[in-house]
Design goal:
Largest sheet: 8 strands, mixed
Strand content: 15-25%
Shape: globular
CATH class of the largest domain: Alpha Beta
Number of strands: 12
Helix content: 25-40%
Radius of gyration: 21 Å
Mean pLDDT: 86
Distance between the termini: 51 Å
CATH topology of the largest domain: Rossmann fold
Strand order of the largest sheet: 6-7-8-3-9-10-12-11
Number of helices: 17
Structural class: alpha/beta
CATH superfamily of the largest domain: P-loop containing nucleotide triphosphate hydrolases
Bound molecules: adenosine-5'-triphosphate, iron/sulfur cluster, magnesium ion
Order of helices and strands: HHEEEHHHHEEHEHHHHEHEHEEHHHHEE
Low-confidence stretches: 1-12, 18-35
CATH architecture of the largest domain: 3-Layer(aba) Sandwich
Number of domains: 2
Length: 407
Amino acid sequence: MLVLTIMETETEEGIRNACVVEYLRGWCRTSVMPEDTEEYVLKVESLKAFYTSKKGLVKAVNDISFGIRKGESVGLFGESGAGKTSVALAIMGIFDELSRYYASTSSEPDNKKLWEKRDEARKKGLASEDLGMELPGVEGRILFKGKDLLTLDDKEYRKIRGMEITYVPQGTIRSLNPYTQIGLQTAEALWSHDEDNLLIEREVLRKVLETLDLVEIGDSDLRQFMKPAEFSMGEDQRILLAMALISDPSLMITDEPTTAVDVGVQRRILDAIEIVRRELDLSLLLISNDQGLIAETSDRVAVMSAGRIMEFGTAERVLTSPGHPFTRAFIMSNPSMEMMRKIREKGLRLRGIPGKPPDLANPPSGCPFHPRCEFAEGICKTDIPEYREVEKDYWIFCHQFEELPDW
Ligand SMILES: Nc1ncnc2c1ncn2[C@@H]1O[C@H](COP(=O)(O)OP(=O)(O)OP(=O)(O)O)[C@@H](O)[C@H]1O
Ligand code: SF4
Ligand SMILES: [Mg+2]
């Protein structure tokens, strides 16, 4: 099934997204935070996710930690290639399988060997650190309702994936099956997890209509029989949201939900997300490089660059008084109207981030932002900063935080 879908797409991202959609649809036919379990739905600790590539290991997610509380919406915000989607794939438990697939199709025998080493290490319960070498795949802890997802076997993971944790992948606007009625597609997550045949058709139909109504697909009783071609792009995206919501998940991850749609459509999608937040006791991880979307939908924001979380705090703190040089530069490169006003008031110079994002197969030494940072000092080039809580609930990955000028 995976291979058939790949033939329909051309770009690497297209392939990956098609894989993700197929994976979630079919294969997932198939519930963990540390001590303060009650408060957090998800807690990610020291998470790493490395791909194999011709150039070596791509450190897409490099030792990140953050949490999402019950009913909270956390925005994962950052530049393209920062590793945001890779975080989602790791949480969904499909990062290894997808990156392993690329390794199996590449002609790099070393990469295949690295994956074999990873398998051996897992069997022995060892991490890459124990072996003194870096390995591909996911490592760390992903605690969902107190249980570490990385310790679950496939069967246990499948019970959570697509049911308790759902995912609307990036660039999926044309990913609905064009030949299947949207009502049937919306119901898929329920049927595919009904291993014991407990579901009643009438109840599923009721749930489908209720969920389509929730995301404002009007006349759902009639339109459930229509196929995707009869819906607009924005409605497609909302149907994908419905597919991710029908199982009443505890956590929904949406990856760039408004990319490539016009402003009006964006508005409807944002409204749907807002309604979902209000009506359901749901935690959200919203992935985007769109400052407006993040500001509007997130309670807290984690800013990502080069596989690291640079700054993590309340949306107010991070987006209006960012403490990290990367966040400041990133916001300045595409400021909101409100930020423009602030920049003018403060007499700051509006400019983008100089240079290019780092190559994650060969990241810079020390702080990965140092080649582009106007505040870089000697230590920034040699030592990796500690990700530390500098105020209650406010985390920073920067040597010089205390010395930086106010913003
Ligand atoms: N299959 C793969 N093999 C090797 N490297 C990959 C693969 N998929 C992604 N990468 C690399 O991993 C890094 C992180 O990619 P990822 O897609 O997670 O970033 P992102 O923050 O989601 O970017 P965007 O905002 O463009 O979606 C990038 O450097 C990317 O080139
Ligand atoms: S650690 Fe140094 S290089 Fe990195 S963001 Fe802070 S000041 Fe800049
Ligand atoms: Mg992405």
